[in-house]
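Readers of this paper often ask what the protein records in our data store actually look like. This encoding replaces a full spatial description with a residue-level series of whole-number codes. For reference, a complete record is included directly beneath this paragraph.
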Amino acid sequence: MSNNDPVANKVEIIATDINETREIIERHIESLSYPIDSWLEGRLLEAAIHKIIYNSCCVGYAGQIEETLHFFHICKEYFRFAPGILEAFIEKKDVKRVFVMTQDSLLSALIAEWDYEKEKAACWFTDSGRKENTNTQTSHAVFRIACLSDVEKIRKVCGDFFEEPSGGFGTLEERVEAKTIFILEDEADLLGCGIVEKGQLCEGVASIGMFVNREHRRKGAAKTILLNLKVWAYNNNLKPVAGCWYYNTLSRKSLESAGMIATSIGFEAILKGKEKLPLRTGNPPGELVE
């Protein structure tokens, strides 16, 4: 970018924290076409937060993890300057990748002007609201909140699936004590487990997920768990959302069978550069302006 760029010369990037930028972050979340799940909240809480100053005014924020820009938002009244501000941030902070969630219309539009390689990363779901057929091979099983006496058999079936820190919890025991882990059992058999994570930044939202015993997969256990988690969320005045790795096709099918629909895709844009457009007039083919 040229040192004479009128936008870049007015951009200042200041390291800060999530508390100092909470108002802008809340405006960003409200601007999204769909709410974010607990995984995205975790990324935001982990990121190095920067306050973006333009022409001496705070106009937005960015969240960066190593060389990847994960979050970027400019207040609506400054949208016209957003392309130049993003370019300035990428250059000043040596950004190599940009994580894009398609429910973020501003960043999706800004990155569309760049040349990049795409790595699909995630798929997010919201509830369709349609009434689902609840009949499965596991419809007779018992669904209940897990208790501490269930911890060992949960670990035996699920391994460390519930141990990754997220949603404000760091261990399976903490989640069980908070009543956020559920089990589906058929007499002595643990068919699978469900999890709920209430939004830390996105109020009124609950991220739901499940892990199914390998011996009981593709029999409807995942659907049964998810349908029950949706009921729990609505009974607690929460909107259920979910997410998974883009290529986890079995989880995607399970979510869809429980009435969840894919509403956003996450991908990493590995930046190659931004095209410098010549001045033109008219529609295609257009005329070059000297």
Notes: The mean pLDDT is 93.
